Amino acid sequence: MPSLITILILGFLLGMRHATDTDHVVAIGTITARQKSVKSSMAVGGLWGIGHSAMVTVVGILIMFLHLNISVRIGTIIEFSVGMMLVTLGVINLFGVIKIPVVHKHEHSHGEKTHSHLHFHFIRPLLVGSVHGLAGSAAIALLILATINNSAYAIYYLLIFNVGVIVGMMIITTLIGASLVYARNKLDNLNKYFVLGSGIISFVFGLYVMYQNRF
After folding, report:
1. Which of 89-98, 133-142, 167-176 is the least confident region?
2. Quick check: 159 and 57 in contact, CB under 8 A?
3. 160 has a pLDDT exceeding 60
4. Total domain count for the chain?
5. What residues make up the domain containing 50?
6. pTM of the entire structure?
7. Does 108 reside within a domain?
């Protein structure tokens, strides 16, 4: 049996690699194109990773300890739903139906008392990450079961894999955000082209995924 250190290193590296899957990058790129700063782009990546990791962890534990079986047909349906989600994200960017607000904090004054409210509106990357996590969780959990006999090691692997996914996605969105901010500083009206371009890519790729996983 491989050592725990080997398992953790492998899990982290595979998690970072998993973050660069094409459908992940297309989805997160579509969302990040609407952000106005590197900080908000990084937050989007982190939230996507958290949503993805939560779903992978839940399904992975169910498979490892309750022997949950996800059939090929169910997996195909989930992948098809990923395609639908990408199409939806593309449409949102193309037509500007839904704008992504940023994290902001403001204060309300009530008489002599002042209350601070933190409005956290990054629900979309959490949901998108969760769908992606559900789509890829079965294969990851089955891989753990097939290669790691020690259940504690399997859980450690799953957790460090998730850390790798979060770190990898935050790096990706930070690089995208920094590139977009730099480009916008050079030419103001580039923003709409980034949003439209990412929308077209997401829409077309989503249709491709749906076609690949058609019933």
Report:
1. 133-142
2. yes
3. yes
4. 1
5. 4-99+123-212
6. 0.75
7. no
Read off the tokens for 70.
């996800």
The pLDDT of residue 17 is: 82
Average pLDDT over residues 88-116: 57
Of the candidate ranges 48-52, 123-127, 180-184, 199-203, the one whose mean pLDDT is the lowest: 180-184
CA 67 – CA 138 distance, rounded (Å): 11
| 136 pLDDT above the threshold of 70 | no
Q: How far apart are CA 188 and CA 182, in angstroms?
A: 10
Q: How many residues does the chain have?
A: 215
Q: Per residue, what are the HEC states of the chain?
A: CCCHHHHHHHHHHHHHHHHCCHHHHHHHHHHHCCCCCHHHHHHHHHHHHHHHHHHHHHHHHHHHHHCCCCCHHHHHHHHHHHHHHHHHHHHHHHHCCCCCCCCEEEEEEECCEEEEEEECCCHHHHHHHHHHHHHHHHHHHHHHHHHCCCHHHHHHHHHHHHHHHHHHHHHHHHHHHHHHHHHHHHCCCHHHHHHHHHHHHHHHHHHHHHHHCCC
Q: Is residue 78 domain-resident?
A: yes
Q: Which residue has the tokens 């891989």?
A: 143
Residue 110, in any domain of the structure:
no
Q: What is the pLDDT of residue 141?
A: 58
